[in-house]
Amino acid sequence: MTFDFVGAFHKGTALEELLIGHQVEKRLGVSKRTLATLTSAGILHPRPLGTALIYSPDEVEALESIKENRPVAKEAPPAWIIRLGAPDREGDGHPLGWEVGRSDNVDAARMYWKIADPEAAEGNALVALVGPLVVGVWNITSGILHPEIGPTGRAEFEVEAAAPDQQEAYEGRWLNLGRGPTTLRWPRQE
User: Fold this and answer.
1) Are 161 and 106 within 8 A, CB to CB?
2) Is residue 101 within a helix (H) or strand (E), and if so which, with residue range?
3) Under a CB-based contact definition with an 8 Å cutoff, are residues 122 and 65 in contact?
């Protein structure tokens, strides 16, 4: 959803209703860096106004509603949570990060994670986050370790559409993990 600032002024949205970065950070409970990632991934669409970026109240309220009403439950089905950043590409063209509307987001989500035993992940959900927002959910059908990549190897998953219980538990939900590793098990291992 893209906010029409000119249209908003004509429809009665007052200037004081528009939001700047620190207001959005506070309302969503995210850092400046996470807000920048949500923006670069195409989840939020701020517009420049002078030296500030102005955010759509509708977009922020939609995310706020997910935060308040759709958190991931502690009892959700087993999953590997992966944190994706801003969209980019490696030198070989492999996609990195997440970008709304990009057709190869699943390849960025399923490949080259530092996971010791990817074969054991079969049947778990693969859950992609941008900041605290779940942007993708798949079922892991198999995992392969590529020992030739990096000093400890990297895991690649084969995935299919998420099972109904995986979709219900994760899709379009909020999972604010704070700082931490780029991959982790859910529910968290005690």
Assistant:
1) no
2) none
3) no
Edge-first strand order for the sheet with 183-186 is 111-113, 154-161, 133-146, 125-130, 79-84, 183-186
**CB 82, CB 109: distance < 8 Å:** yes
ω into 71 cis (within 30 of 0): no
Q: Would you say 64 and 27 are in contact if contact means Cβ atoms under 8 Å apart?
A: yes
Q: How does pLDDT run across 30-52, given as a tens digit for each residue?
A: 999 999 999 999 999 999 988 98
CB atoms within 10 A of CB 44: 24
pLDDT in tens, 76-135: 999 999 999 999 998 888 899 999 999 999 999 999 898 888 999 999 999 999 999 999
Q: Residue 131 — left, alpha, or beta (φ > 0 → left; ψ -120 to 50 → alpha)? A: left
Residue 186 near residue 127, CB atoms below 8 Å: yes
